[in-house]
Amino acid sequence: MLYNLLAPLADEYIFFNLFRYLTFRTGCAVMTALVIAFLIGPALIRWLKNKQKEGQPIREDGPETHFKKAGTPTMGGLMILIAGGISTLLWADITNPYVLIVSFVIISFGLIGMADDFAKLTKRSHKGVSGKIRLLLEGTIALLAAGAYVYFTTDMPDHVNTTFDATGLAIPFLKDYLVPLGLLFFPFAALVIVGASNAVNLTDGLDGLAIVPVMIAAACFGLIAYLAGNAVFSEYLGIHFVPGTGELAVICGALIGAGMGFLWFNAPPAMVFMGDTGSLSMGAGLGAIAVMVKHELVLVIIGGLFVLETVSVIVQVVSFKLTGKRVFKMAPIHHHFEKMGWSEPTVVIRFWIIAVILALIGLSTLKLR
Predict the structure, then answer these.
(1) CA nearest 77: which of 39, 44, 119?
(2) 3-state SS class at 178
(3) Which tens digit of pLDDT belongs to each residue from 306-322?
């Protein structure tokens, strides 16, 4: 909003030229979201405690150390949505279609997460909204986002490479090549968004475990969005130029700032849990951004920790149904290591290290083409 109001004044007042720079507005988005999260955090946590009374239900079959967390409120993702949303509204170009699409995805998935958290609280169970209903809603929102992306991207300015295919799939390490997916792009894009959302949701099981890898991924995709939306940098790196997607760096900055603010209150021992409100919305946001900037497969690398957590659950379920035996002591895999005797901080910090390594590998694909 500030960009739309103040950038046009740059021709008369040179100071306002700052608002034309993505790097300046992204940095401001980080700090704004962080400050807002710090300001609203204590009051929001008190309000959640007052409304929830008994806090988030604790799984009876989970690690014994988790029982001491009883009474901790959930839905802390509201802090991220509020802080990140206000920051995005202030610093992003609110007329940019990609900003609008990603914001729509984040808010919509956040509402689904709120409904899921509310159902868990009222049922006093770790099972919330029916899985089929939740997936149906998520899939519908993701398909709408994919359709909007193709609509706006197809109507690119004339100076853009006419061989660009909005429904194509970019392959890491290959320059100037898109696999033509055609109509298959829509279910594929929906799979990326829904998959990323639920992968982050599965990872959110320990204090601080999910939020730091999310911030790492957001930082990576903030950089990728900036490069993909810049004609000079995208040509130099051999990545696909998608005009306007650079503005998504501001949303990534807002997610980082809001995430840092949330981590302040989520650090062990957590004062509040993210809940599905935060995990579903942030995961979906990352998935949508990956689709917009044509780096869906790179998300699999950068978000490899989320993929690992998801695969561990799939393997556990399939193995138990086919053989009656469990591969892991407990799934997702972070609980397996807890059952092995690792302390919660040890699991969390080691998983953070893995997330950093995977992020560096993912970013290396930008140049290795």
Answers:
(1) 44
(2) strand
(3) 999 999 999 999 999 98
pTM of model > 0.85: yes
Q: What percent of the chain clears pLDDT 70, i.e. is strictly above it?
A: 92
Could you tell me if 198 and 280 are in contact, meaning their C-beta atoms sit under 8 angstroms apart? yes
d(CA 59, CA 205): 11
Task: Check residue 160 and report its DSSP letter.
Answer: S
Rounded to whole angstroms, the Cα distance separating 177 from 172 reads 10
User: Which of these, 246, 259, 282, lies nearest to 33 by C-alpha position?
Assistant: 259
Residue spans of the domains in the chain: they are 2-364
160 φ/ψ sector (left φ>0, alpha ψ -120 to 50, else beta): beta
In residues, how long is the chain? 369
Cα dihedral across residues 218, 223, 224, 230: positive or negative: positive
**Alpha carbons 96 and 303: distance in angstroms, whole number:** 26
- Burial grade of 181 (CB within 10 A; 0-12, 13-18, 19 or more): middle
Does residue 156 come out as left (phi exceeding 0), alpha (psi in the -120 to 50 range) or beta? beta
Residue type, 309: E
Token representation of residue 73: 């409120």
Give the residue from 38, 117, 49, 115 showing the smallest Cα distance to 272: 49
Dihedral (CA of 129, 256, 243, 7) sign: positive
CB 287 within 8 A of CB 192: yes
Residues 221-240 have pLDDT tens digits of 999 999 999 999 998 898 98
Tell me the per-residue pLDDT of 146-184, one tens digit each, with 9 for 90 and over. Answer: 999 999 987 665 445 555 788 999 998 888 788 999 999
Tokens of 63: 């690690």
